[in-house]
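Students often ask why we bother encoding 3D structure as a string. The short answer is that it lets us treat folding as translation between two languages. Here is a chain of 388 residues written in the first language.
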Amino acid sequence: MGCTSCATGADGQPKGCRNNGTCGSDGCNKLTVFDWLSNMSLPGDQKPFNAVEVRFKNGRKHFYQFLENLSLSIGDVVATEASPGHDIGIVTLTGELVRVQMKKKNQPSDISALPKIYRKATQKDIDIWQKCRNKELDVQKQSREIAMALGLKMKISDVEYQGDGSKAIFYYTAEERVDFRQLIKDFARAFSTRIEMKQVGFRQEAARLGGIGSCGRELCCSTWLTDFRSVNTSAARYQQLSLNPQKLAGQCGKLKCCLNYELDTYLEALDEFPKTDIKLKTEKGTASCQKIDIFKRLMWFAYDNDGMNWHQLQVDKVNEIAAINRKGKTVTSIEEYIEDLVIPDSKLFNNVVGQDSLTRFDQPQRRRKKRRNKSRNRNRNRNTQKNG
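And here it is in the second language, the structure alphabet:
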């Protein structure tokens, strides 16, 4: 649920509050946590958990402690402890769920070790914060020009100002180590603020910037994915995908995170399959595996002396032949284990849309209408000649 300014405008087009996830209702955030304990009261002998989760730009979140006399709720804009000065963020989670989130992210449970929340942000704090946020794009363009003038092999992907404007964080990506000591001096001279450089990975850069993937949906890393697991090319091999770098790579240039989504299911299904380098010994010769189908549980074998003719076998039959071969025996031929599978037409094709005609997009023939129009014109001409 978004705020009222995110509702649809004229002609059904979305308005958009253009706050980039900093609206008061916290409904535009890509990693919003639903507080399902908000309507439940604590037991009488338990004290409330005096820690909150605060979100900053691009989904960056931290945990903070606050005083007991400060009442905070989700969506409140607060001034948090920073070095130096203070930062401005939005409260995204309160209560016992903060304890759960801290345990999930391996944060220490001691509240006293957390940074503090000074106060709720005043209107003056919010005005300074919005002023700093509005100039981030111009600072990013100018910083890229300075980096290119120095000949540094780096890409400045994002700029984030601290809430009080006393510090600017420059996020960059680079293939190699970059000596940016002169760059920091030029930045401090150009922007008149404290400079901090943070190197991020290519996956983190894609998560911060966002985009549309090849599937047509918004990137998983910028919507709901919070942890980045390593992705190997073996995941594509297990799923029998072609090792095409252009298709397997995402916007970050690395392997797509979605290659791991169904990997466990494939590995579980492949446990019942024998290895692809298995050899079936028969009286007609040795047969080698040519191809497998994980979904249909089928394997194709061909004799070494007749590699053009493939024979389709079920996984159970292959395991049966392999068990016989392990006992030192051979079977007559693999043709004896082939079963003819009768698949009904309803499983081959189902009309789920209701448009199964191949000519449904063709224009209808209008010959009859043309003939009727011609006959009408002839009758009109005859009548006019008679009246004349």
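Translate back mentally: Confidence is low (pLDDT under 50) at residues 1-5. Keep this in mind for the problem set.
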